[in-house]
Amino acid sequence: MLNEIDLRRVDLNLLVLFQAVLEERHVGRAADRMSLTPSAVSHGLGRLRRLLNDPLFLKTPKGVVPTARAAQLSVPIGDLLARARSVISAAAPFDPATSTRRFTIGAPDGASAVFLPPLLADLRQSAPGIDIALRQLLPVPGETPERAWRAAYAELEGRAMDMAILPSEPSAVRFARQALYDEDFVVVMRAAHPFAGNLSLPRYCEAQHVVVSLSGDSHGFVDEVLAQHGRSRRVALTVPNFMFAMAMVAETDLVCAVPARFAAVQAARFGLATRKPPVPLGRFKLNLVVPEVALMDAGLAWLAKRVQQTGRSKPRAGTAR
Question: Which of 68, 13, 83 has the alpha carbon at shortest distance from 43?
Answer without folding.
Answer: 13
